[in-house]
Amino acid sequence: MPFTDNRAFKAAPRMLVAASGMHYTDADGRQVLDATAGLWCVNAGHGRAHIAEALAAQAMQLDYAPAFQFGHPLGFTLASRLAAMLPGDLDRIFFANSGSEAVDTALKIALAFHRVTGQASRTRLIGRERGYHGVGFGGISVGGIANNRKLFGTLLAGVDHLPHTHNPAYAFSRGQPQSGVACAEALERLVALHDPSTIAAVIVEPLAGSTGVLPPPVGYLERLREICTRHGILLIFDEVISGFGRLGSAFAAERFGVVPDMLVMAKGLTNGVVPMGAVAVRQALYDGFLAASPEGIELPHGYTYSGHPVAAAAALASLDIYQEEALFARANALSAPFEQAVHSLRDAPYVIDIRNLGLVAGIELAPGGRPGARGAAMLQACFEAGLLIRVTGDTIALSPPLIIEEAQIDQIVETLRRALDAVV
Ligand SMILES: Cc1ncc(COP(=O)(O)O)c(C=O)c1O
């Protein structure tokens, strides 16, 4: 099983058989409150009939259309809807089937763009320590998690990494840590080391999710943008987690007022109902490819299921719900009570840091014995107590569906406190 302790799972399987609203039903018929929107993706909550009906109708209308050399209307409608939601001139959309594929697509577009526009020496990619960009070879190369890299050989050549932004001195910061912009200055050092003419792109998650919820320090993303612009380096935001309302706006780029050159999305794009990923690129990149290839295929890249009609229908229906129920504004309004609630755990056993932004929080625990063991024990204890959480190492990550009620936020925190009191 993916990213799973298979033997532990076999010994005590956690089987989910149904879902509706804020809850899963497990194989024993118990209701389990979903504090993680599945895997950061079910932003509109579970069992949304509008999405299910849309994809069923689309499967009957047009089940599949070849992605190469043919189009279908929903793909273009979806691209237009996304372009209207995105900041700046991030107007051109390339569809993939997952976050990992979308990341690799963005990295390939960066390399190819420089090459076709006469800057073929720009081949270096820069990621960040503690970054997670999925599991393709591109994603793990720019990613910054040793465990995801060490088994898989030499990865992509010519990749370097920025330092991560986590600073224990700012433990229990609410929202963005006030200090840390210096971490962005490290990009200037990498530029000086490698020379800007060798660097194609920088990729970061605006908020690092999978390595324990690390909100960007104040001014950090703005500074990265300035440095990239000055040196002609493409800036890629991986918004697979931070997109679709998670931080209280459509995208983190909008929340921070920083427009990247490419923006990667997945997960909430279809509310998790069917797989889909996408990359939005600025108009100038699209134009660059067209200008470089007066005829023929401009970008030799794509997937059999790029822009799949059923996924496109699910995505459009998800966007309808986000809009009709004003879920991004709802997430924004809930972020203050959510922050208040999660920080009330500051005095609970083992808690060494709490970080939050929008409707995301990370509660870091002191490791007990083997690193990750306490986190794993919390996952099991919470599940037994009717709460689904995500743990990454010894950090609990919370990212509930945006439809959550305040009473359910309280229930999450109360269950966590009881579990922390009981776990060793
Ligand atoms: C920031 C980020 N990028 C990429 C991915 C990979 O997405 P997927 O699992 O759909 O390939 C994830 C998944 O959690 C992610 O959090």
Question: How would you portray this structure in words?
Answer:
The protein has 424 residues and is of the alpha/beta class. It has two domains: 6-47 and 326-422, Alpha-Beta Complex (Aspartate Aminotransferase, domain 1); 52-324, Type I PLP-dependent aspartate aminotransferase-like (Major domain) (Aspartate Aminotransferase, domain 2, 3-Layer(aba) Sandwich), CATH 3.40.640.10. It contains 15 helices and 15 strands. The chain has a seven-stranded mixed beta sheet, with helices on both faces. α8 packs parallel to α9. The structure holds pyridoxal-5'-phosphate.
List the keywords:
binds pyridoxal-5'-phosphate, alpha/beta, Aspartate Aminotransferase, domain 2, four-stranded mixed sheet, 424 residues, 15 strands
